[in-house]
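Researcher: Structure prediction, please.
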Amino acid sequence: MLRHPLRPVAATAAALAAVGGLTAMAADPVPASPAPRSRHVLLLSVDGLHQSDLAWYVARHPHSALARLAGGGVEYTHARTTVPSDSFPGMVGQLTGGDPGVTGVYYDDTYSNGLLPAGTTHCAGVEPGVEVDLTEDLDRDQNSLDAGQGLSGLPGSILNMTGDAARLINPAKLPVDPKTCKPVYPHSYLKVNTVFNVARKAGLRTAWSDKHVAYEILDGPSGDGIQDLFAPEINSQAIGYPAGQDWTKDNAATEQYDTYKVKAVLHEIDGYDHSGAHRTGVPAVFGMNFQSVSTAQKLPVSDGLTGGYTTAGVPGPLLVKNLGFVDQEVGAFLSEIHKRGLDADTTVILSSKHGQSPTEPKALTRIDDGPLLDGLNAAWKAAHPGAADLVAHAVDDDAMLLWLNDRSQAAADFARSYLLARSGTGTGIDGAAKPFTASGLKTVYAGAAAARYFHVRPGDSRVPDLFGISQYGVVYTGGKGKIAEHGGAHADDLDVPLVVYGAATPHDVRVDAPVHTTQIAPTILRLLGLNPRQLDAVRIEHTRSLPTG
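Model: Predicted structure follows.
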């Protein structure tokens, strides 16, 4: 199928350029052409999926559901997700229109110098500074697929899980607001509103499905943005699999897990809540996150198939199988939309929270970050007798984010100099020893430089004191159980697909100019006939709707 960009689309998209490597907004953008109104927007996010993966699959399966989306709507071939390229900032960006500096969400496991430790009940005089954990650790029972609701007959009964995810968060694990001395739920941690908040104010129905109940963050500051949030716990014990193995440790298990969310969305297309038991009407904004592509990229071997890529950018057997799985499920959505007569007023958006790095197997260098951070703390205390550890919190996947107990520029510079001077030995794709230099880092932003990178003021309570962009192929892990990760700023982390397909969009359009996944949020509102400027982040960052024709 011949695809070419329409001139108005190309002209608008050409105005979208990255600001500081983080956003795809323009200082003085040309407004996107008005789009016809859609009654329903289905957002599908496929963790780990690259634009190159989509192009590879479509080229080999021209009659597939993914080919139907890419060829039948508007395909943006140079879309980029947030930096850091983690699930939380990535998903929050898609549904708020904002980057981490505006949303305040830098990672799923992050740190705040403005909040108090969990469990604090007498707040006067307590020193602020605490880990903000937005992972399975917040569940009432993280080992249960229902996050501790207590359903019998799991996993078959999982669709009976509550749509009020906040009920399943353990408040004793939440950081505490020093002003109110009360726990801070994820939705309160988010600094800006979401698409769901705007839709609710307009009287529209909302639903979403994701991997932790901590995705209650998408409820937005009001706490009521999503009417039906189905969030089975992906890091719980995988039922029917060996003890201690969660749903991400075997790709077949991850596919099984994803099918529960697929069933929930199919019920919603049919006009019911996620359980299929209560008729509610088709949501105006709804969708889900797929996890199975991500595990197919990370696992060295699963179900007798080799994971990751065979050569640079060429999917291996496990990933090929899983791309087929996602295609099948996307096809099920399109078929159900057609079956229910919703084609004329439904728009489907396909993208990803993040990519995965590296896609070149030979580039992989696994580095154990534990000794690096231990060495940094020891060096700091040797140079400052009586001092505590320098590192308050660290998140290192294929980037390095450090929050320091001493937030001075001198301390940040000390950490930067120490890390860039460290060499050692990691392991390669074959498990053999592989040397590394500069702690595996390519560029390090420290102190004020890190704040500038994220467009916030130095001393911001949430910004990392050090942000390190790793050398290509570096994954921070002490083991040999993974061959890829995300969280960094390489093309493999950032270059994700973005397709807008449906009745409210033109057909057979390809946009090759840069866009950003934060533009999904204002686009959703525009498609629904709502004002994108009702989003806080859109007003702050001047995030524009995608040029859809």
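Model: The longest strand covers residues 40-46.
Researcher: Thanks, that helps.
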